TrEMBL record:
The lineage of its organism: Bacteria, Bacillati, Bacillota, Bacilli, Lactobacillales. SUPFAM superfamilies: S-adenosyl-L-methionine-dependent methyltransferases (SSF53335). This is Methyltransferase domain-containing protein. Residues 43-96 form the Methyltransferase domain. InterPro entries: Methyltransf_25, SAM-dependent_MTases_sf. It comes from Enterococcus faecium EnGen0026. Pfam families: Methyltransf_25.
Length: 119
């Protein structure tokens, strides 16, 4: 299998520039979140290190970060543990190979294309 390019950049992905961009994206997304989001599950497909979605975790019943890069997910899992977030989990999924078997979620977004819109 070809090495995922994001595996090689995961350790320095959360740069100050990307953190600033993630904040802008998060602020924009927040305007579209349902008012009753505490009862909903958020799926962040392409969520990587959780840079965009982890700060939103407390607003949802559950947050699921799915990504094709195991190394990016490992970084997200370290953040999840450090913040002691009990309602967050990760899924290793590569839609270019096979779409993951995940049920329908109340809210979802795909981080990677959104980042391209704002950069």
């Amino acid at each position: 299998m070809t090495k995922n390019i994001f595996d090689s950049i995961a350790n320095h992905y959360d740069s100050p520039d990307r953190q600033a961009l993630a904040k802008i994206i998060r602020e924009e997304l927040t305007t579209y979140l349902p008012r009753d989001s505490h009862q909903k599950v958020l799926l962040d497909y392409g969520g990587g290190t959780g840079l965009v979605s982890l700060p939103l975790a407390e607003r949802f019943k559950e947050l699921i970060i799915a990504d094709a890069s195991e190394t990016m997910l490992k970084m997200a899992e370290e953040k999840i543990q450090a913040a002691d977030l009990k309602n967050v989990r990760t899924i290793h999924a590569d839609a270019s190979v096979e779409f993951p078997a995940v049920p329908f979620y109340h809210s979802y977004f795909c981080t990677f294309p959104i980042q391209r819109l704002f950069s």
